[in-house]
Amino acid sequence: MRARFRAVVLATVVALLATACSNPLPSVSPEAEAVPPPVLSAAQSQTVLAAVGSVLSTSDQALDPTGLSARLTGPALTMRTAEYIRSTATGGAKAPTALPANEASAVIPQTDVWPRTMLVITEQPDDLSARRVLILQQASPREQYKLWGWARMFPGEFPTTAALTTGSAVVAADDPDLVVPPSAVLSQYADVLANGASSASAATYAGDTFRTATEANRTQQQALAAEGGATFTETYAAVDGPVVSLATQDGGALVVGQLSTTSTITAAEGGTLTNSDPFSAALAGAAPTTSLARTYTDVLVFYVPPASAGGQVVALAAEQILTAAAVS
What we know:
Oligomer: single chain
Order of helices and strands: HHHEEEEEEHHEEEHEE
């Protein structure tokens, strides 16, 4: 009896094992990574832009930078403050840069961290000058979005980015899937500005309006200085890393960052400088005698193609404003 019971139990166990083997256990698949939503809706981006435009309008009318910090930060605050000094020093001959508050399109990031930076491409200004790219940033959850910088668009097509309802992914500074990692774009471009075809990065960067104008102005200033026995030098440096890199639909990225350009003219030994620029004198607090160093704040927007496609990095927009001067 006991032997028969054991046989029945063993038969039952074998049957259960066979059943288990014939029906594989369900596998556990890893959950798909959650994609953050866009940080703003189209309506919200318009509201932000209107608020920035209101602050600019009020401050521009009075040429008073006191209220700018409510909606401007970083290079934009430095640049606009300097433009007020320029307008006053020139008797209104050089007004602040027109910054339309009407949006033609926008690139809104898809992220759940801060700071958050979006790009707005404006309608063409009333003076028919180039459209602007406005860079707006929210530093932390409780901060308002502020204008971080602006740049004038060059002729040509702007790369296609994701729809506003989806948002554009933020690209890592060291992303290896691009022709150049975003963290290296500004420093490489500065080297190209300084050394032209001799730069190790020259072939990586397409020619552009800003680069052509910089090289032409430097050559002209060097020639003028030499005529009077003076010397002219100019240096270019990246300011920190890119403020933001946002994905384009083709796997590339828009990279936004800042350069600092310093132009220095020094009189020949025993000579003096004659400076007819009231703006430089106003920034420095005095007229130069033997040397004048002028520092420009530059904001640039680049397109970096994916490494798989190859091609050159292209500057899409740039702005350069004289923001500081020193004399001796």
